[in-house]
Specification:
Elements (H helix, E strand, L loop, with lengths): L1 H47 L6 H4 E8 L10 H13 L1 E15 L6 E15 L4 E12 L5 E7 L2 H9 L4
Parallel strand pairs: 1-5
Antiparallel strand pairs: 2-3, 3-4, 4-5
Length: 169
């Protein structure tokens, strides 16, 4: 009986020692997530204000983007920026609301990994008079320097482009 009791105490001690290390790693990943969320917000604000001056420094040269188009292949940094500028040039005013940042999680442990999921509603007025209300979801991954290295966006981009390029109202 004494041996079982000692074994239980030893087991409890081992398990209690491992918890703080996991908590510290989780805290670090949540802090990284918060820093990376700020980067996404800066990029959103830049798009809204038609100011892409910070894009170059916040996005890694090796970045890969999965655009929200059907049958679109992965694109690079330059092609993504070109597409963003083209779309923004069709819009007179754009804002976002209901911005919600959520941490992405490791697929094995289901614990935060420092990357960002974002939900938003984009509202814009086209230069042609069109009004667009678009639900948006994206996943963004970052390197240790907080530079964007992967992005996958989901929204009705075809509907937005069709509305923005329609004859003026």
């Amino acid at each position: 009986m004494k041996k079982i009791f000692l074994l239980l105490i030893a087991s409890a001690t081992l398990f209690s020692c491992s918890k703080p290390a996991e908590t510290n790693a989780d805290d670090a990943n949540l802090a990284t997530f918060k820093e990376n969320s700020k980067i996404v917000k800066i990029l959103f604000d830049g798009y809204s204000n038609d100011d892409f001056s910070q894009y170059e420094t916040l996005v890694a040269d090796s970045v890969k983007f999965v655009p929200p188009s059907v049958n679109a292949d992965t694109i690079n940094k330059a092609d993504n920026l070109k597409g963003l500028k083209m779309l923004r040039s069709l819009q007179a005013k754009i804002t976002y609301s209901d911005l919600e940042f959520l941490p992405t999680v490791d697929s094995v442990t289901y614990k935060p990994d420092g990357n960002v999921r974002v939900f938003a509603k984009w509202t814009s007025e086209g230069k042609n008079g069109a009004h667009i209300y678009n639900n948006y979801f994206a996943i963004f991954q970052f390197n240790s320097d907080h530079k964007l290295v992967f992005g996958a966006e989901y929204q009705d981009i075809k509907g937005a482009v069709d509305a923005l390029t329609a004859p003026k109202k």
